[in-house]
């Protein structure tokens, strides 16, 4: 089902059908978005359930002013960032340490089936500051336009372009340090 049809269902109050369509259309995309930020299959599955509960409860307040997918990604992004902040608080660690933990998860992930280069790419991404990591993932993997990322993150497109540029350079530097 198309986003426009799902939006109409929401606007008409047919939340059950709209929610079913959202789950069918977005489960996999949201899974990979969250997974790239958490680096854990189990944590992603747990959080995805919470995200869909949040979407369900927020559906009556969805006015349709934004695109459906940016609204969904905003919810998923906020919930994921909240989970990462909780991890940081519970373990009393710095933001840099969270990046190191996430990079370690890439190595420990039994479901990761990429090449050595892909593994190093994902580890380099996890070591980025939170905003750069988020922008890089949305732009590189999800191929989103800066305008859509701005809607999701509440950041200007200029700042997003700068964050992506810095992230790209850091990743490039990290990958050049390894020989493949």
What is the compact description of this entry?
This protein is mostly helical and 180 residues long.
Description:
The protein has 180 residues and is mostly helical. The protein has helices spanning 3-11, 15-38, 41-58, 68-90, 95-108, 116-126, 130-141, 146-153, 157-176. The longest helix is centred in the first third of the chain and has 24 residues, at 15-38. 31% of the residues are buried.
Mean pLDDT: 91
Q: Could you say how many structural domains there are in total? A: 2
Q: Which spans of ≥5 residues are poorly predicted at pLDDT below 50?
A: none
**Overall CATH class of the largest domain:** Mainly Alpha
Largest sheet: none
**In CATH terms, what is the architecture of the largest domain?**
Orthogonal Bundle
Shape: globular
Please report which band the strand proportion falls in: under 5%, 5-15%, 15-25%, 25-35%, 35-45% or over 45%.
under 5%
The topology string of helices and strands comes to HHHHHHHHH
Give the helix proportion (percent range).
Answer: over 70%
The CATH topology label of the largest domain is Rna Polymerase Sigma Factor, Chain: A
Rg computed from alpha carbons, rounded to a whole number of angstroms: 17 Å
Structural class of the secondary structure composition? mainly alpha
Number of strands: 0
Number of helices: 9
Termini separation comes to: 43 Å
Q: Which homologous superfamily in CATH is the superfamily of the largest domain?
A: RNA polymerase sigma factor, region 2, helix turn helix motif
